[in-house]
Amino acid sequence: MLGPNTSQLSAGNPSVSPLLGSFEGFSAIYINFGTAEILKDDSRRVAKKAEGAGVAVTFEEGLHLMHVHPIFFPYYPDARNTLHNINKWIQAIFDK
Predict the structure, then answer these.
(1) Three state DSSP letters for 28-62
(2) What totals of helices (H) and strands (E) does the chain contain, helices first?
(3) Is 89 in contact with 81 (CB distance < 8 Å)?
(4) Buried (b) or exposed (e) across 17-40, using 16+ Cβ within 10 A?
(5) 3-state secondary structure of 2
(6) SS3 8
(7) Closest to 20 measured CA to CA, from 45, 2, 3
(8) Which of 53, 56, 80, 81 could be stapled to 28 by a disulfide with Cβ–Cβ 3.0 to 4.6 Å?
């Protein structure tokens, strides 16, 4: 995802992880993850860091769900609920 120059990036580069950068000036963000995924702690830290920078953060944590669980919407009600919540969030942004 970072492209062909990935090996030239230092481990402290914000392109490697959003936790390494600044959230100053960001618009509202929606963070969704499942508690069964490896990135759950990073997701919580990103939300906290963004909120600390004054960003409006909508945070949804799916109990026992895995990474990218919304793609399984045809099969799981929790995935459909997540997509519904994302849709409501987007609509609220456009309705402002």
Answers:
(1) CEEEEEECCCCCHHHHHHHHHHHHHCCCCEEEEEE
(2) 2, 2
(3) no
(4) ebeeeebeeeeebeebbbeebeeb
(5) coil
(6) helix
(7) 45
(8) 56
State the pTM of this model.
0.82
User: Is residue 85 within 8 Å of residue 57, measured between CB atoms?
Assistant: no
Q: Are 14 and 43 contacting, i.e. CB atoms less than 8 angstroms apart?
A: no
How confident is the model over 3-56, as pLDDT tens digits? 666 677 787 888 788 899 999 999 999 999 999 999 999 999 999 999 999 999
Which DSSP symbol is given to 65?
A: P
Q: Which residues contact 29 (CB under 8 A, 6 or more apart)?
A: 50, 55, 56, 57, 58
Task: Please tell me the distance from the alpha carbon of residue 87 to that of residue 81, in angstroms, as a whole number.
Answer: 10
Between the alpha carbon of residue 84 and those of residues 12, 21, 42, 78, 95, the distances in Å are 36, 30, 24, 10, 16
- How many Cα atoms are found within 13 Å in the side-chain-facing hemisphere of 40? 14
